Amino acid sequence: xxIKEQIDHNLIPQHVALIMDGNGRWxxxxxxxRIYGHENGVKxxxxxxxxxxxxxxxxxxxxxxxTENWNRPKKxxxxxxxxxxxxxxxxxxxxxxxxxxxxxxGNLKSLPEKCLLELKEAVKLTENxxxxxxxxALSYSARWEIVNAVKNILNDFINGNKPIENVDDxxxxxxxxxxxxxxxxxxxxxxxELRLSxxxxxxxxxxxxxxxxxxxxxxNREHFFEAVAEYQKRERRFGKTGDx
Length: 244
Ligand code: FPP
Known about the structure:
CATH topology: Undecaprenyl pyrophosphate synthetase
Number of helices: 7
Radius of gyration: 19 Å
Low-confidence stretches: none
Bound molecules: farnesyl diphosphate
Structural class: alpha/beta
Shape: globular
Helix content: 40-55%
Order of helices and strands: EHHEHEHEHHEEH
Number of domains: 1
Distance between the termini: 32 Å
CATH class: Alpha Beta
């Protein structure tokens, strides 16, 4: 049976987060520069969005550039930034045609000015789209986000004379860059690495984790459906027992 036919449309994850890993290794296997892998990763982004659209998944978050990625060789960082700017610019019309609204999370102030301007423009141009929310994590790390939230909570509570004891996880969530989005139901990481690499550490407390050996540039619609089908087999208990 076709993998898509195995999917139960009453059990669709509302938010899928993706760690797009393996571009460098994919390029190396072909004797090419790492950037060749990133360029080919764009096709996998399109396939993923197409598959998510077919399943009517309302939120997709993609880890495109981590805080730690700034430590890569300057040439790779510059070319990757350029690729991101060009992709965002070239795909804005397509995003609008498909009803995709773009959001960006991360330490955006650290991005090159040109990249930030293109990003802001694409976010603005897509703001009325309402089929799928695409959240791009750029210069993002979960520890940065959590520390930032703590600083802002302390500022607001101390300056506003509000008791710190009132801070609970609902209030904390409001200070995260993902405050407008539900927590991911499913997290997918490609390339066979079994770690979270500082991605959405607060938000994935109860997410189902799915690891695949497929390198990101090879990741396609069917792979996405396989991940969703596997997610649907899991019993999510959120810390309770399964007997209810
Ligand atoms: C990780 O592979 C991938 C990245 C750091 C960049 C991801 C960016 C894209 C797929 C470009 C397009 C994205 C959007 C959202 C427009 P790696 O370089 O760490 O691979 P390796 O682990 O094999 O070295």
